[in-house]
Amino acid sequence: MSNDSKLRTAMNAILAVSARRLHALTEMAKNLAGPDGEEWHRTLKAQLKAGVSGAAMQPAPTHKEDLTRFFFEVFGLEVDLDDANLDASDGEIAMFNPNILTASELVKQGCKHFKLSDPYFYKSLDEVRDTSVRPNGEYVFVYKDSPARDLPGVSYNQAKKQNLCILNLVEYILATFFSKWKTGKFLDISGWTRLDALWFDDGVVGADWLGGRLYFGWRDRGRSNTNGGPRSVVIRPLGS
Fold first, then answer.
1. What does pTM read for this prediction?
2. Region label for 184, one of left (φ > 0), alpha (ψ between -120 and 50) or beta (otherwise)
3. 60 Cβ partners below 8 Å, 6+ apart?
4. Distance (Å, rounded) from C-alpha 85 to C-alpha 81?
């Protein structure tokens, strides 16, 4: 067996077993590439036979478990999702808004967790006016799980005239950080999202991932183009 084969075997074995065995397996993996690799390989297979079989049968984390981990790891929040309806159709994601941290605090914590460069802000996010209608306190919002906006070319003014429910600033921040946590990519790696939020001078907040950092810029509230658009959202109060 070549050293490359030994290392591949070790890596596959380590990924297949539980975390509590990881330290011991890491030490064994080092020996697989050494002069006694064949003997270590036989020992490894014997010791992992039962463990690998059991690990393979473990179910994937539920969406509720994912959200619980996401809020704790990224924002340091312990959330109670027992009353949250997290059901979603294919192509949708149900997200929880605990309404604890402000938009500025969420961005600061998220960028710190992912070790990101400082975001671009047209002005302070504390000066943004939320123009959406939402429940007081905690709630669930459901949005499309797609890098593309589902309302391309719709301006802020058009969305308001048609009474469309679209992502606001805090919801977008939660959604884009969850996308990064789950998939490794932010929502808007191409194009940008018009949010249900206005700057102090009535320009609409446009958000995306631009130039290697999060970008919260100024957009004309009456302008429409296919490179940007709102994202529709369904709001669910807890217990619904």
1. 0.76
2. left
3. none
4. 8
Q: What token pair was written down for 27?
A: 């030490």
Strand partners, 140: 96, 236
Distance CA 231, CA 66 (A): 22
Question: pLDDT tens, 11-70?
Answer: 665 555 554 455 555 555 566 666 666 766 666 666 666 555 555 556 778 999 999 999
Geometric angle at alpha carbon 108, from 102 and 113, rounded to 5°: 125
Give the DSSP letter string of the chain. --HHHHHHHHHHHHHHS-GGGHHHHHHHHHHHTSTTHHHHHHHHHHHHHHHHHHHHTSPPPPHHHHHHHHHHHHH------TT------TTEEEEEE---S-HHHHHHHHHHHHTPPPPEESS-GGG-EE-----SS-EEEEEE-SSS-SSTT--HHHHHHTT--B--HHHHHHHHHHHHHHHSS-S-SSSEEEEEEE-TTSPEEEEEEETTEEEEEEE-TT---TTEE--BEEEEETT-
